[in-house]
Amino acid sequence: MIFYTPNPLDLLANQEINDRREYRLPSGGILTTEVMEDNRVRILSLTSTDPTDYMNSAFAPGRVIELRLDVE
Questions:
Q1: Where are the domains of the chain?
Q2: Up-side HSE of residue 53: CA atoms within 13 Å toward CB?
Q3: Is the separation of the CB atoms in 12 and 36 below 8 Å?
Q4: How far is it, in rounded angstroms, from Cα 22 to Cα 32?
Q5: CA-wise closest residue to 42 among 61, 72, 11, 64
Q6: Does residue 39 come out as left (phi exceeding 0), alpha (psi in the -120 to 50 range) or beta?
Q7: In this structure, how many other beta carbons lie within 10 angstroms of the beta carbon of residue 53?
Q8: Distance (Å, whole) CA 67 – CA 33
Q9: Which residues pair with 53 in a beta bridge?
Q10: Per-residue confidence (pLDDT) for residue 59, from 0 to 100
């Protein structure tokens, strides 16, 4: 793989890569998220064919969501 970057490779090697997860929405869309601490994720992107998913501010990129476990 070839990297074309104006930054020194030392900076690229020291970058911390966070775990990424994908979650399916009921409408069929996919939220790509980055895992944070304390059961939270940050939304990176939304992929959907349903226009109402893009209008929902809860799915806006950059938003932090707390994951909850519901036990019944």
A1: 17-66
A2: 15
A3: no
A4: 5
A5: 64
A6: left
A7: 19
A8: 12
A9: none
A10: 93
CA distances from 52 to 6, 14, 67 (A): 39, 39, 22
pLDDT tens-digit profile of 19-70?
Answer: 899 999 999 999 999 998 888 999 999 999 999 999 999 999 999 999 887 7
64 vs 48: CA distance, rounded Å: 19
Conformational region of residue 18, where left means phi above 0, alpha means psi within -120 to 50, and beta covers everything else: beta
Global pTM value:
0.69
Report the C-alpha gap between 68 and 56 in whole angstroms.
Answer: 20
